[in-house]
Amino acid sequence: MTFLTGAYRPFFPAAALFAGLSIPLWLVARMGAETLAGDPYLWHQHEMLWGYLPAALAGFLFTAIPNWTGRPALSPLALLALITLWLAGRGAMLVASDAMASQLLTASFLPVAAALALREILAAGNKRNIVVVAMVGAFWAAQLLFLWFDAQTGITAGFAVALLLMTLIGGRVTPAFSRNWLKKHGATRLPAEFGVIDKATLVLTVVTALLWIVTDTSMLTGLTAALAALAQALRLSRWRGLAVWKEPLLFAQHAAYAWLAIGLALLAASSLGDWASIGQVHHALGAGAIGTMTAIVMLRALLGHSGRPIEATRADSVLLIALHLGAALRVCADWMPDPTLLYHAGGTLWAAAMIALAMRAFPIAIAPRL
Fold first, then answer.
1. d(Cα 90, Cα 22) in Å, to the nearest integer?
2. Is residue 112 within 8 Å of 53, Cβ to Cβ?
3. Confidence class for position 222, pLDDT limits 50, 70, 90
4. Is the dihedral of CA 262, 61, 52, 271 positive or negative?
5. What CATH number does the domain located at 2-366 have?
6. pLDDT (tens digit per residue) in 128-174
7. Confidence at residue 33, expressed as pLDDT on a 0 to 100 scale
8. Spatial distance between the Cα atoms of 235 and 90, rounded to a whole number of angstroms
9. DSSP classification of residue 367
């Protein structure tokens, strides 16, 4: 069955559709409508971070790992079991998020995915990529913390790990793809190679993430977050983003990475004063960085692995702009006297873009490779 011949085929359309449908459910619940979830706010936090992102990660990992290792892709049966486990977790959390059985079911996805990924990486002796599996394990630990110990610390840890994952993956693919495109088009100035600035950015971001988890929005967190934001912006500036603006799928990767610097700057503003709220930090990193970065990675993978040209249509450009604009409206909402209009406008725009991405992805996912 074609749909199960690559992890990107079931996971990417499912992830985008889930994200697009979850936000309207949350907006309706926020207006006071009855929901099946025990606590709609905690459901929203959990499902956007540990519902959507693991699906996008699984699609990415099990599409990339055969390229990293030279080993075969997951079998259709294993892929079917994995997507079924993810779907079961989403259904369980929707109808009974407070039930232990639902929480056990949803908490089982990440360790299974990490174990499968680790098996392939170790079998190929590809130790360089063990760090990615370790990050998935840390993300799972944050989920357990959120579900069973301290939701506030858990959500902080979840966003902190996601920040590191986006820095790691975005920092790998963005300059690499841009370098290849610029070489193809005869450019002589290319994105800078990995160097001191990249190492400093990684160190500052790791330190900020750890301090955020341990000390919350302390002054120390704020100071390191400010330095990390500057480092992320400097790192991004060395990748020649403006030189690839004619190719929307490349320029969108640079724009997505910029949300990491924005999120860290907001974390500094929240920690050092009353200039931003922690909700703005969460949405800059969530709707902004995670949403736009995973969307562009999913779209590129769908096109490339299905044998299609990795080129954006006009509709692709519109949906990517809508994702950024929706995230920006939601972040800015907390600076308004009455944030309701921007809450709903941002959420609706972001959700519509995700549904458009699912509609774009599904026909590709079920079709044979060209």
1. 10
2. no
3. very high
4. negative
5. 1.20.210.10
6. 788 888 989 999 999 999 999 999 999 999 999 999 999 998 998 89
7. 66
8. 36
9. S
